[in-house]
Amino acid sequence: MDSVQVIWNALKPKSIHLDLEKSTPLIKEGEQAKYLYFIEKGCLRSWFNHNGKDVSFQFFLPNQFVSSFESLIYDSPSPYTLESVTSATVHRVSKQDLHAMMASRPELKEAMFKLTCDRLRHYQHLFLSRIKDTPEQRYLALISDAPELLKLVPQKHLASYLGITPVSLSRIRSRQQSQLT
What we know:
Blueprint: H1 3-11, E1 16-20, E2 25-27, E3 35-41, E4 44-50, E5 53-60, E6 65-66, H2 69-74, E7 81-84, E8 88-94, H3 95-104, H4 106-132, H5 135-145, H6 148-152, H7 155-162, H8 166-180
Helix pairs in contact: 1-4, 3-4, 7-8
């Protein structure tokens, strides 16, 4: 059984079901995270405000856990906002319940460690991609790794995630479509 399933099986009895409308914040930048969320349906994104500009840096899909982990673990303000991109169904587990269950269930603690390592690997990949890849290469990787995001996420958020303007994203998409014909 994979880590996500181990964690979900353990936490589900302590979870609270939430149905979210589009653009519902779960954690706001500057607030302290109090919950871990499991996404059943929909798409969420994390973003921060940079000089008045909305910068998306990650998207989350069903069967993923999400929170502002640095805030949740270190009791610090969240450096970003976590919100729904689409209507979504999530389940939340309090920080207290999470810690209590991890203390009493070694397999849960092990699975959380693996989940954290997987997230770290993902962040390292994103970081290196921003340094070495062109915007077009990042776009191609996105459509290869998570093509469903193209249907779920508005172009302005995808462009922000790729580190380009919506106009540049339109040009890249046009070039890609013309190469296919």
